[in-house]
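Batch job 17 of 40 flagged for manual review because the log was empty.
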Amino acid sequence: MLLRLLSAFACLLLAGEDPFSSVAPAVTLSTAQRAVVDRGEVLAFAVPGHRGQVAAFGATRINVEPELLALAARDIAALKKSRFVEAIRRFSDPPLLSDLDELQLNGRDVQALASCEIGNCSFKLTAIEIETIKRLRDGDVNGEQVTAALRRVLFDRALAYRTAGLAALPPIANRGKPWRLHEVFEALTTVSPRLLQSPPLDAWMRDQPLQNGQIETFLYWSKESYGAGKPVILITDVAIYQPSRDVVIVAGKQLFSNRYMNGALSLMAITTDGGGAHYLMYLNRTTVDLLGGLFGGIKRAMLESHVSDEMPEIIARLRERLERSRHVSSFDPVRHD
């Protein structure tokens, strides 16, 4: 009963008010920034981060009903497929090893996995996962066994998360000092916006049991490229939540990244103001492993500049695709990292 009351209260808070108050305290818009959005322009900027985090926010008005966002998110392969995404597939429910058949490794990644040792591995793996790779790598001439071993590792990671959440996963042991995924994620959620603090989404973020029908969730894997960097293999847990006809929230939780990122939390939403206008918002907060050391501040500035430069295009293309999809039966690919 208490949970239902809290959910109903959250619906009242999220609908019919200033839609941007729902992303506070993570993001607060000035009067000038709000005017930019109300003119139909795209607003995008880097959000202050800490503890190795890089964050960005984007928003614009959009002429579609919120439920269209939920429809698009369910077809995640069409939503994200582009020249930046080499491969992507939604996991079955429950996950199957064959869901990863399309995952292939280039020669550099095969060599990196073939040389992995606990405490010295370029892939962000647990000790158990590294030992699994080691058992199968000897005598592997063309990398097929290493690729198959990585597929097994990702499959086992997805199953373990589905069974007991991030906290049950062993520490990542690719470097001298092991670290835990759930601790990284907890740091990300401490600055989460109000949209993610409604009871059902808060339970999902904390790996607590969900009541049937409140939230729709699924896992997917992808292999993506970021500029001139090496390809990144990801597993993401997606949550779709519609507390009312005026609000749809699509959140993403990173369960695996082979490089660059230690953890990430994303939020995409369409909200509605008191006058019936709809707004598309996107917020991504990522903990990266490149911000330490003497030049950490310079690296952060470069990353934030890169993210800020890309965000307007991401938001504009997503808005265009969603508005166009009202008149067609399929979704054109769009990048949204």
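Reviewer: the log was empty due to a logging misconfiguration, but the result itself is present. Residues 296-324 form the longest helix (29 residues). Unflagging and moving on to job 18.
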